[in-house]
Write a structure and sequence with these properties.
Number of domains: 1
Strand content: over 45%
Number of strands: 13
Distance between the termini: 22 Å
């Protein structure tokens, strides 16, 4: 896959994609005064289909794209003005250890537009509290104050409207062909 920058790997099951402002308002599994969590609100907004994405509107200004990972791991890439998220691999090796057979293939369209109101896009584990982060200034994969492992990633993209497509690619691992699914966000 030419001209694609691997941003990093995140562990988790349910991931959200948003701008920085919405991310900072997300409380993850931290309970409010009614013993409710933001994480619990996601129950009806998760698609368990591989390479699918749903939309969760917490408020007019807090909008999140929801991505479920079958493997409990995602790989994050950037290509030009596009964000690419693949469901991670079940094998515990780095992305560089795999042989990629072909380019990314589009397998479907997502029916909604995503408007990122910030130049920095945050991809994060839905259990994370947005107030517990070090920084959202640099592109990369990071850990929060409370977590010893990488729990969020930041990617810089132009501030505009995006559409999402369901994608797949084929890699080789130990002479075995493996199909992986994901999402590509591209300018509208």
């Amino acid at each position: 896959m030419e001209n694609i920058k691997h941003i990093g790997t995140l562990n988790g099951r349910i991931f959200l994609v948003s701008g920085v402002k919405a991310f900072k308002q997300w409380r993850g599994i931290r309970e409010n005064e009614n013993s409710e969590t933001n994480y619990d609100l996601l129950d009806d907004f998760i698609s368990y289909e591989e390479g699918d994405l749903t939309l969760f509107k917490k408020s007019l200004t807090e909008v999140f794209s929801v991505f479920f990972s079958m493997s409990s791991k995602i790989e994050i890439f950037k290509k030009d003005n596009r964000l690419i998220i693949f469901d991670g691999l079940y094998f515990n090796e780095s992305w560089d250890d795999y042989i990629i057979k072909n380019q990314i293939e589009v397998i479907g369209e997502i029916s909604f537009e995503i408007n990122f109101n910030d130049e920095v896009i945050v991809i994060f584990d839905a259990t994370l509290d947005g107030n517990k982060v070090f920084s959202t200034n640099k592109e990369g994969v990071w850990s929060s104050f409370d977590e010893p492992f990488n729990s969020y990633a930041t990617v810089t993209l132009p501030q505009e409207s995006y559409k999402a497509k369901r994608i797949k690619t084929i890699i080789y691992h130990n002479k075995q062909e493996v199909i992986i699914y994901g999402i590509e966000f591209l300018p509208n």
